[in-house]
């Protein structure tokens, strides 16, 4: 899901020549914690003004947060979403955690994070669900529930919209790709043989 978001953003730059400024993205590597980045992308043009690439600048969220009091005020909500994504998260609770009224919190959050708090909650949940579906053997329903999606049909619909395929097919495709890549791996040389 994270990769798909990056791909969609790249297409906006390549196809429409748009500049994307300070978009918030969650990333995670292997089993490490989710990390947040501000990402800006600019089209790279040749002399005839054709788009031939893009320039991306990523700043760790913590660095940006430390420089901006308003963003810094949102940090408790971001940390709670990152750590407790599987639990029921109420916008009112996030606002209270940041010492803001609910309406003020929603306005500032969307303005500064470039998406709603609910969208970020879903992004984090979907990231973990996709990761579990791709690499695990648990039922799709259990994974969805464990990642904070309590309506299974709504989860499947959202998953399809995001990935273009149903969760079970996504898992089968990932496993088939893994098996194919494993089958064509270059074998290790036999002991005692050296390249000349």
Automatic annotation (TrEMBL):
<dbReference type="GO" id="GO:0003700">
    <property type="term" value="F:DNA-binding transcription factor activity"/>
</dbReference>
<keyword id="KW-0238">DNA-binding</keyword>
<feature type="domain" description="HTH araC/xylS-type">
    <location>
        <begin position="75"/>
        <end position="173"/>
    </location>
</feature>
<keyword id="KW-0808">Transferase</keyword>
<dbReference type="InterPro" id="IPR009057">
    <property type="entry name" value="Homeodomain-like_sf"/>
</dbReference>
<keyword id="KW-0489">Methyltransferase</keyword>
<dbReference type="GO" id="GO:0032259">
    <property type="term" value="P:methylation"/>
</dbReference>
<dbReference type="GO" id="GO:0008168">
    <property type="term" value="F:methyltransferase activity"/>
</dbReference>
<dbReference type="GO" id="GO:0043565">
    <property type="term" value="F:sequence-specific DNA binding"/>
</dbReference>
<keyword id="KW-0804">Transcription</keyword>
<dbReference type="InterPro" id="IPR018060">
    <property type="entry name" value="HTH_AraC"/>
</dbReference>
<dbReference type="Pfam" id="PF12833">
    <property type="entry name" value="HTH_18"/>
</dbReference>
<protein>
    <submittedName>
        <fullName>Bifunctional transcriptional activator/DNA repair enzyme AdaA</fullName>
        <ecNumber>2.1.1.-</ecNumber>
    </submittedName>
</protein>
<keyword id="KW-0805">Transcription regulation</keyword>
């Amino acid at each position: 899901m994270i990769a798909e978001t990056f791909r969609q953003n790249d297409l906006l730059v390549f196809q429409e020549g748009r500049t994307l400024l300070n978009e918030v993205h969650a990333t995670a590597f292997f089993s490490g914690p989710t990390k947040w980045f501000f990402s800006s992308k600019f089209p790279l043009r040749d002399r005839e003004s054709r788009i031939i690439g893009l320039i991306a600048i990523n700043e760790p969220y913590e660095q940006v947060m430390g420089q901006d009091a308003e963003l810094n005020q949102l940090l408790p909500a971001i940390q709670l979403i990152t750590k407790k994504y599987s639990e029921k998260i109420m916008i009112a609770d996030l606002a209270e955690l940041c010492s803001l009224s609910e309406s003020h919190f929603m306005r500032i959050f969307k303005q500064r994070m470039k998406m709603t708090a609910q969208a970020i909650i879903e992004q984090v949940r979907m990231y973990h669900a996709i990761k579990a579906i791709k690499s695990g053997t648990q039922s799709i329903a259990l994974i969805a529930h464990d990642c904070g999606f309590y309506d299974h049909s709504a989860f499947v619909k959202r998953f399809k919209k995001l990935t273009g395929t149903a969760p079970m097919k996504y898992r089968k495709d990932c496993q088939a790709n893994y098996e194919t890549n494993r089958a064509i791996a270059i074998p290790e040389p036999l002991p005692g043989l050296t390249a000349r």
